[in-house]
Design goal:
The longest helix has 25 residues. With 274 residues, the chain is of the alpha+beta class. The chain contains ten helices and eleven strands.
Length: 274
């Protein structure tokens, strides 16, 4: 089935006007910029259960810290489209890394805040999300063993449990003008909120994430802004880095595997100094 065949029924159903060329995400979901009721929007057709879970979470957030869901049915999701000129990646690379990090922490606080409604029943618990780390540790040893050890410790004693984005980083938080910065593309997890900050340390680029002194500096900023224990935050960075390396190794993403293992080594070294 062509992209047009997938999109056209929803364009007609929700009375949308195409406002750009359709494109696919890395995992295969289909998106198209559209206009809905005179406002910019994004039409998304989910490709798998993870993307559908993310749509349910976006709807639950109700536009508080995340893009507003204008309509959702089956695999189709109609979202508010952020059109502001700002970019957290550009900020970080342009000498405003600390400011970009502060914005990510602010957005995370909004996403983690309790809601007066039951959370989606599709959320994935963190222990299940981490299921691929132990096999990687047994198969490859090294830094995977360090990551698995701290992951076991953290997952056995969760603190500050919240609904989690699961993939919070510079390119998943967009400038929505007067609405401020809003999150997109969540994984839909539940567990200790400290987990949600770990991916910040892998972004926005490999070279930047590995810059001397950056990890140590950002640990202080994130811990202070998010109200986290610095040592526990370092452990989440180490645990997440090993997990991400395991995923990338399984998928054949060699460059991403290397970056994750390098960040894991930096976190392990930082942990040894505390």
């Amino acid at each position: 089935m062509s992209d047009a065949d997938l999109l056209q029924p929803w364009i007609e159903r929700w009375r949308l006007t195409p406002d750009g060329t359709s494109f696919s995400t890395e995992i295969g979901s289909l998106l198209m910029p559209v206009v809905a009721g005179g406002e910019p929007a994004m039409l998304k057709i989910a490709s798998d259960i993870e993307e559908r879970r993310g749509g349910a979470l976006m709807e639950w957030w109700g536009g508080e810290g995340a893009a507003r869901v204008l309509a959702r049915e089956g695999d189709a999701l109609l979202l508010e489209r952020a059109t502001g000129p700002g970019s957290l990646e550009a900020m970080a690379l342009g000498g405003q890394d600390d400011a970009a990090t502060a914005i990510l922490c602010q957005v995370a606080a909004g996403l983690h805040a309790p809601r007066d409604r039951p959370s989606p029943d599709s959320l994935v618990p963190l222990p299940l999300w981490f299921r691929q780390l132990e096999p990687a540790a047994k198969a490859h040893g090294g830094v995977f063993m360090k990551s698995a050890a701290v992951a076991r410790e953290l997952l056995a004693d969760p603190r500050d449990v919240a609904v989690l984005h699961g993939d919070l980083h510079h390119n998943n938080v967009l400038d929505a003008g007067e609405r401020g910065w809003i999150a997109i593309d969540p994984k839909g997890l539940i567990g200790e909120r400290g987990f949600d900050f770990a991916n910040i340390f892998h972004n926005p680029t490999r070279e930047f994430s590995l810059a001397p002194g950056r990890l140590h500096r950002l640990i202080g900023i994130v811990a202070g802004r998010a109200g986290l224990e610095p040592v526990r935050l370092i452990k989440w960075i180490l645990a997440y880095s090993g997990l991400n390396a395991a995923w990338c190794l399984e998928s054949g993403y060699d460059a991403h595997t290397k970056r994750s293992m390098e960040v894991a080594e930096l976190a392990a070294a930082e942990l040894a100094l505390t």
